Each structure stands twice: as C-alpha cells, then as structure tokens.
Amino acid sequence: MTQPLDFKRNIAVGLDLGLVNGLKVNRNAADRRAASLANRRTVKKEYQAAWLIRAIECMDLTTLSGDDTPGRVERLCMKAMRPIRTDLMQALGLESLSTGAVCVYHEMIQPAVKVLQGRLPIAAVSTAFPAGLSSLETKLREIELSVAAGATEIDIVITRQHVLTGNWQALYDEMLAYRQACGEAHVKAILATGDLVTLENVAKASWVCMMAGADFIKTSTGKEGVNATIPVSLVMVRAIRDYYEQTGYMVGYKPAGGVSTAKSALQYLTVMKEELGNEWLQPHLFRIGASSLLTDIERQLEHYVTGNYSAAHRHAQP
Predict the structure, then answer these.
(1) Least trusted range by pLDDT, from 31-40, 207-216, 256-265, 307-316
(2) pLDDT tens-digit profile of 110-160?
(3) pTM of the entire structure?
C-alpha cells in the first residue's frame, strides 16, 4: 500500500467502553444527509473524467468466486496494471494508471504474485470469509499463511454475534489478535453492515475495530443481502473523522458490494470529499471493492473522449 513517508499507521489505543456504549445515531438525520449527498448533481466533462480516474486508482479490483482459477486471477492482475485501453490513456494524457490493489482468496495469492511481482498490493480475504465462523485459532493461522504467501493487505471479517450481543470486549480482543497476526500487512476490518441491524451497531463496531488497530474499516463482504449503502457509509466515515480528531490516527474506508456503476462510485467519492476532505481521497485511505465497476468507468471515459458509448462486451473483462 503506497502511502506518504510521514503517515502514522493506526495502532491499538485501548477499548473505551464508555465511549462505545454512549454512541448514538439519529437515523432520520443520517438518511437526510445521505440523500442530499447521493442526489446532488454530479461533476461533468473533464472534472468527471478526473474523478473517475481517481476511482480507478482507489479500486480493489476483486474476484471472489467459487470458480476462480489461476488464469482468471492472472487476467485480473493484468487488467489492474492496465485498467483502461491504450488509446484512452493517450487521449486522457495519462502515462501510467493502475488500480489500488487486487483482492483474491488465499488460494489465488500465488498466481497474483506471479504476475504483479510487487508492482501492486495484493489483498487477501481471510478469517473464514465471508461468514467468519471458524475457530479463532484457524482464522489467525489463515492470516499468517496469506501474509507468508505474499499478501500485503488482509481483509478480515468480524464475528457478527459480538456486535449483535453487545460483547464489545470480545470484538476488540478478536480485532486486536487479527491486527497482530497481520504484522506489517495492513488489515481491513469487514463489518458486514447488512447483518448488523442498526446504524448504532455500525458506529460502535467501527469504533471498536479502530480502537483495536484496524487500518481500514470496510462495509461488506459482498455476500450479504444488503451491502454498501450511503447511510452506512456516512456513519462509518463520521466515525473515522471523530476517531482521527480524538487520536490523531487516520483510518481508511472501503465500501464494497453493489458498487457497480460509475455513478455509484462518484457518490462514494462525494461522501469522502464532503465528510473527510481531499486528504482521504488517496489509495492509502480509500478503496472501492469492485469487480464489474471498472467496465462501466471505462465506458464513461470512452464517451468523454469520443462522444459515443460502447457496449460493455467490447471492454476486456478480467
């Protein structure tokens, strides 16, 4: 993960149960703010093109299917290093462009390492993804094996029952163990927000994971019934903002699941800019988990360059 030399990685700061238990979320106010962000006019022309390029730079290009093969992952990695066509690159005046990382299962780390050779971060989903219901010992070993295989980022899933039963100490201890097992690899904590029932639970889980040293908090595995949404994102990024004001540590944010159109990507970029500022619109602090999103962004960029939309099947699929 490329980051400024003076960037301070988040560390475990201790669990403050008083703060966690006191967190409240005004659902109506959150929905109103989310609607105002989602429905505002989007940027146009060259400004939209620039925002879409930034979305590519902050994308975790992902394949998490049961039928993944080494060949598919190798194609994904090639696409991650060259996400849009050469003629579009030239027309946009770009000399280089890549996604923020690729995201794969543990078994697909080696094919990714073979192609990327350190040129891009490799994120591996871990800890019994997506349900997270294996033993802690098994999940910690999975993290260790993925880091040893070459993963530089680990996307863990929390145990949802800790949130649903209000066992914040258990969630903190679990997240702390994951953080320690990752070592130098950065850890993204997947909250599976669609399973957490309330926005207050989302806020509390966000705080507990950050207090335990998470480098990123992430909405979803992409396998829940409800994945990333703007109201959930608003709650999570405001938790990040408040955590930074209290501790001085900048934690990243990753919406994932259902972010499949250029329009939706622009909405999440807007949330980040409005709530956290331009400093967070960088790959070391913002990622979008996506698989099909890149195709739509490439189509939008082609429209900007040529004035015409092309069929999705004309664009290379990873």
Answers:
(1) 307-316
(2) 999 999 999 999 999 999 999 999 999 999 999 999 999 999 999 999 999
(3) 0.95
What one-character DSSP code corresponds to residue 133? -
Q: Longest C-alpha distance within the chain, in Å?
A: 57
What does the CA dihedral 5, 8, 10, 12 come to, rounded to 10 degrees? 130
- The pLDDT assigned to 40 comes to 75
The length of the chain in residues reads: 318
DSSP H or E stretch at residue 44? none
Set out the domains of the chain in order of their start, with CATH numbers: 17-304 (3.20.20.70)
Return the axis-axis angle of helices 27-39 and 230-247, rounded to nearest 10°. Answer: 110
What average pLDDT does range 224-245 have in this prediction? 96
CB-based contacts of 218, cutoff 8 Å, min separation 6: 155, 188, 189, 190, 191, 253, 254, 255, 256, 287, 289
Q: What is the pLDDT of residues 181-190, one digit of tens each?
A: 999 999 999 9
Distances from the Cα of 79 to the Cα of 22, 83, 292, angstroms: 45, 5, 12
Residue with tokens 């097992």: 181
Which residues are known catalytic residues? 155, 218, 254
Of 111, 52, 106, nearest to 76 by C-alpha is 111
